[in-house]
Write a structure and sequence with these properties.
It comes from Nitrosomonas nitrosa. The protein is mainly α and 322 residues long. The protein has 17 helices and 2 strands.
Length: 322
């Protein structure tokens, strides 16, 4: 089931999610409306909300709380983007100016806080302590991941395991929470709930690995950001970590220097080393391994269109170009 068919399959549910988002975005403060509308409606794959919808459907859920929680997940994700772009001093996301570039850092941070707090208001409305526990734990771990990534910046000594830990905290944790929430709503067994959580964690990891790979191989029109943005920020991602490990001492020295200075001047040299050492192929292989673990986690669940959609997402995560 290609990604277009997944979008078609859940289109009605995602339309309901969008309606919740529009309703809950409203504030009496005009600037909050302006910034949050800009970032929410400025594209994005909406994969995390889709995971809530698909996992709930997998267990036959027929209520309305999945729309509310899908919107909550999107709000939390959007809040992290607003804060991320300020921390990274990013100017471009999805081919458009970032909110901080348009409205300033202060507005972006504060509207991010608004989205976080609105998300918690919404999850309380679901009236489930289990749901609140999952989302509270997830947001706390995501924040830890943000700080870990900050500590890793401009540090060429970051090992692959430390890099993966940041991904699992910062990115994959919300994928895990989204998949788990749908299972909770659908009254899945503890074993089934854990299977969805494992699926989400490894799907999210594969997704971020490909994101980091695309920073050295993607096309601006597809990815919406410039090649080398991660290097310019001094982020030691997997292509760099592997290239330093597999390359010569001289090649490793070039990459170490580029990470430490966080500059763009040596990007072409670094890109050549990445290509020469097979770092992109290694990162792709590592992402495929994560996707395979995700698929295996739900393999024994009852076959359905919802399950096929979830399996297709593992394929999309690795083969996508944006």
């Amino acid at each position: 089931m290609p990604i277009e068919r997944i979008r078609s399959f859940i289109a009605e549910d995602m339309s309901a999610v969008d309606a919740v988002i529009r309703q809950k975005l409203h504030s009496q403060v005009a600037l909050i409306n302006q910034v949050s509308e800009y970032i929410i409606h400025n594209g994005g794959k909406r994969l995390r909300p889709a995971l809530v919808i698909l996992s709930a459907g997998l267990f036959g859920y027929s209520g309305q709380h999945h729309h509310q929680l899908a919107a909550v997940v999107e709000f939390i994700h959007t809040a992290t983007l607003l804060h991320d772009d300020v921390v990274d001093e990013s100017k471009l996301r999805r081919n458009k100016a970032t909110a901080n570039a348009l409205f300033g850092n202060a507005a972006s941070v504060l509207v991010g806080d608004f989205l976080y707090s609105r998300a918690f208001q919404m999850m309380v409305e679901v009236d489930s302590m289990r749901v609140m526990q999952v989302l509270a734990d997830a947001t706390n771990i995501i924040a830890e991941g943000e700080v870990l990534q900050l500590l890793n910046c401009r540090d060429p000594n970051v090992e692959e395991e430390n890099y993966l830990r940041v991904i699992r905290f910062k990115t994959a944790k919300l994928f895990e929470a989204a998949a788990r929430l749908g299972a909770i709503l659908g009254n899945a067994t503890p074993e089934e709930e854990d299977a969805l959580a494992i699926y989400g964690m490894h799907l999210g990891t594969a997704f971020q690995l490909i994101d980091d790979l695309l920073d050295y191989s993607g096309d601006y029109q597809d990815t919406g950001k410039n090649l080398g943005d991660d290097l310019a920020e001094g982020k030691p991602t997997l292509p760099l970590i592997y290239a330093m490990r597999a390359g010569t001492d001289k090649q490793a020295s070039v990459i170490r220097s580029a990470i430490e200075t966080g500059g763009e001047s040596g990007f072409q040299s670094v890109l050549q080393i990445i290509q020469d050492t097979g770092a992109l192929a290694y990162a792709k292989q590592r992402a495929q391994k994560e996707a395979d673990i995700a698929s295996k986690a739900i393999a024994k669940l009852t076959d359905s269109n919802h399950k096929e959609c979830l399996l297709e997402l593992t394929r999309f995560a690795v083969t996508r170009n944006h």
